[in-house]
Amino acid sequence: MVGPTGSGKSQLINGVLQKLPTSKYAFKVINFNFYTDGIRLQLQLESVLKKQGKTFKPLAGGDSTLLYFIDDLNMPATDPYDTQSSIALIRQSIDYNHWYDREKVELKMISNTM
Fold first, then answer.
1. Which residues contact 75 (CB under 8 A, 6 or more apart)?
2. Half-sphere exposure of 11 (CA within 13 A, CB side)
3. Which DSSP letter does residue 93 get?
4. In Å, how far are 3, 19, 62 from 23, measured between CA atoms?
5. Residue range 73-99, pLDDT digits in tens
6. 114: Cβ–Cβ under 8 A, 6 or more apart, which residues?
7. Strands lying side by side in the sheet with 49-52
8. Sign of the C-alpha dihedral, residues 73, 46, 52, 24?
9. Is residue 41 packed enough to be buried (19+ CB in 10 Å), middle (13-18) or exposed (0-12)?
């Protein structure tokens, strides 16, 4: 959603998320800022997931879908390589449905998230 500052974009999305049926959907609001990096973002994304076998699914259980609302997507600073690690992590998650465990350096498969 695009619009001028203070036009209510975030409030509109939060209102829609609040009205979703809790039996089918859960949501997590993540606010980006200048200091948001891939490590911090991954910790926030994983905070609402649980491990089932080799796959990570929403804590809500069942076949519920977890919706991540990323607010102020354009805010993170670029690194010395002119990239944004937080945006790269989101892209990887969308494209491949996984990201890597930063300690064990192995795949974490992610399901039922948007």
1. 32, 33, 34, 36
2. 4
3. H
4. 32, 12, 9
5. 989 999 898 999 999 999 999 999 999
6. 65, 66, 67, 68
7. 49-52, 55-58, 107-110, 98-100
8. negative
9. buried
Q: What is the pLDDT of residue 74?
A: 87
Terminal CA-CA length for the chain: 16
Alpha helices by DSSP H, listed for 66-114, are: 85-96
CATH of region 9-110 = 3.40.50.300
Domain boundaries, the chain: 9-110
3-class secondary structure, 91: helix
- pLDDT higher at 58 or 53: 58
